Amino acid sequence: MAHSDDKQQFLAQVFTVIHQIPPGKVSTYGDVAKMAGYPGYARHVGKALGQLPKGSTLPWFRVINSKGEISLSGPDFERQRAELVAEGIPISSSGKISLRNYRWQPGSM
């Protein structure tokens, strides 16, 4: 993703998808990339979320890895875990979430 315009388009699409994830649901980095029109760009989604400014209103915490786990560690892990638990999503001590029960499938609500 070399061009600035391409990057801006990617970010706009990704952030639009993430804003649509409803409370109490999660999506994977790969699912977000695919829904944004960029299949195979899961790592780019993670990178974009890692660069969000403090105070962002994007519900970044609803995006997890393909194993149904929180990928972050330390205080960031705890913050993401707390946000998800506050939305009623049960999480194991290792950060595992049931994708079967909590994965967002647009159009199936």
UniProtKB/TrEMBL annotation:
| GO biological process, any | DNA repair
Protein name as catalogued: Methylated-DNA-protein-cysteine methyltransferase related protein
Taken from the record, one Pfam family name reads DNA_binding_1
Cross-referenced InterPro entries: ATL_DNA_repair (IPR052520), MethylDNA_cys_MeTrfase_DNA-bd (IPR014048), MethylDNA_cys_MeTrfase_DNAb (IPR036217), WH-like_DNA-bd_sf (IPR036388)
Domain Methylated-DNA-[protein]-cysteine S-methyltransferase DNA binding stretches: 10-89
Q: Which Gene3D superfamilies match?
A: Winged helix-like DNA-binding domain superfamily/Winged helix DNA-binding domain
Say yes or no: keyword DNA damage present. yes
| Keywords in alphabetical order | DNA damage, Methyltransferase, Transferase
Single GO MF descriptor: methyltransferase activity
Q: Where does this protein come from, organism-wise?
A: Vibrio gazogenes DSM 21264 = NBRC 103151
